[in-house]
Specification:
The structure is a single chain. The protein is α/β, with parallel strands linked by helices and 307 residues long. The protein has one domain (24-306): 3-Layer(aba) Sandwich (Rossmann fold), CATH 3.40.50.720. The chain contains 11 helices and 7 strands. Strands 3-2-1-4-5-6-7 form a 7-stranded parallel sheet, with helices on both faces. The two termini are 24 Å apart. It binds nicotinamide-adenine-dinucleotide. The site of nicotinamide-adenine-dinucleotide has 28 residues, from α3.
Length: 307
């Protein structure tokens, strides 16, 4: 089952950053749109929790929003692409979950201050952060080559979104988590932060630095019952992937994973749910690879025909 069938009632996922239909509301709040017969926040593995997801308008973040909401969390779906966040939150509330949409540029501290205040006023303290936004667009990725060709403005931009964005999320949410008795921060990193490659130097460095941020936050706030972990995905099949990567290159990527497929957004969302929930209460400061075995071997020494 791919994520389109699993998430078939959310058609925008099939086309990535597609904006919602014109009927989507300007602002979506649970009280206005939740189906009255369902109070999903009363049960589930995240019952009573408030989750904020960055980059929640698309791909991994949109699936995480659905997964956390379906386990009882009240979900603040945030994205720089406000219509995309609205579409995700709108569908969640139609499905009977508790969700709201918020425009948030993770690189902008004033934006964080405004959104945290909005979410806390609506739901109370945020106790789960999925810090997931990154500049994944082809216009940035295609220019992020090797270090000799690095455009300094592009480097700064990627660091501002991917790295500063997560730092700001921690900065503005940890105090509320501590005061609430604890919380869980899950950062979307990447295997590219752990292994060398000949392109995407800025993106890879931002992910490696995020892994360090995880350990810093986990160390400082563990005794306050605030945990911090990262998930490092392998290659995940988001809609943009097939548009931007040629088929022969995709086959190479698939071959390098040990399982017979690329990753799915559900694979990452399930891991976020686990790390957000009490089931993982003894896990902190870890980078968990959800990568189909991509980093477990050396592809040149284990070509597909030999396994
Ligand atoms: N897809 C993969 O193969 C893969 C692999 C490893 C890691 N990741 C990571 O997974 C995360 C999600 O990526 P995805 O594949 O779902 O991509 P995506 O493009 O579907 O989602 C990224 C979202 O982030 C949002 N965003 C971009 N800049 C932002 C900003 N400044 N402020 C707030 N939101 C912003 C975008 O609007 C988009 O909705 C990223 O951190 C990415 O680096 C993805």
């Amino acid at each position: 089952m791919n994520y389109q069938t699993a998430f078939g009632n959310l058609p925008w996922l099939a086309v990535g950053h597609l904006h919602p239909t014109p009927t989507a509301p300007e602002a979506t709040h649970a009280k206005e749109h939740a189906a009255p017969s369902v109070d999903s926040s009363m049960s589930g593995r995240l019952a009573g929790r408030v989750a904020l997801i960055t980059g929640g308008g698309s791909g991994v973040g949109a699936m995480t929003a659905h997964t956390l909401a379906s386990e009882g969390a009240k979900v603040a779906v945030t994205d720089i692409d406000e219509p995309a966040a609205q579409a995700v939150a709108h569908q969640l509330t139609i499905d009977g979950f508790v969700a709201s949409a918020h425009a948030l540029d993770v690189a902008d501290e004033a934006s964080w201050i405004r959104v945290v205040a909005e979410v806390e006023a609506t739901y109370g303290p945020v106790t789960v952060l999925h810090s997931n936004a990154a500049p994944t667009g082809a216009s940035h990725m295609s220019r992020d080559g090797d270090v000799e060709d690095m455009d300094v403005e592009l480097w700064d931009f990627i660091m501002a979104v991917a790295l500063r964005g997560s730092m700001l999320g921690c900065k503005h949410l940890i105090r509320g988590m501590v005061d609430a008795g604890g919380g869980s921060i899950v950062i979307t990193s990447s295997v590219k932060g752990q292994t060398g490659s000949s392109y995407r130097v800025a993106y890879s460095c931002s992910k490696g630095a995020l892994d360090a941020l995880v350990r810093m936050v986990a160390t400082r706030y563990g005794k306050s019952n605030v945990r911090c972990n990262a998930i490092a995905p392998g290659i995940v099949e988001t809609p943009g992937l097939r548009e931007t990567v040629p088929p022969d290159r995709l086959q190479l990527l698939e071959d390098a994973h040990l399982v017979p497929r690329l990753g799915r957004v559900e694979d990452i969302a399930s891991a976020v749910l686990f790390l957000a929930s009490e089931e993982s209460s003894f896990i902190t400061g870890q980078i968990i690879n959800v990568d189909g075995g991509l980093t477990a071997h050396t592809p040149a020494l284990s070509p597909p025909g030999s396994r």
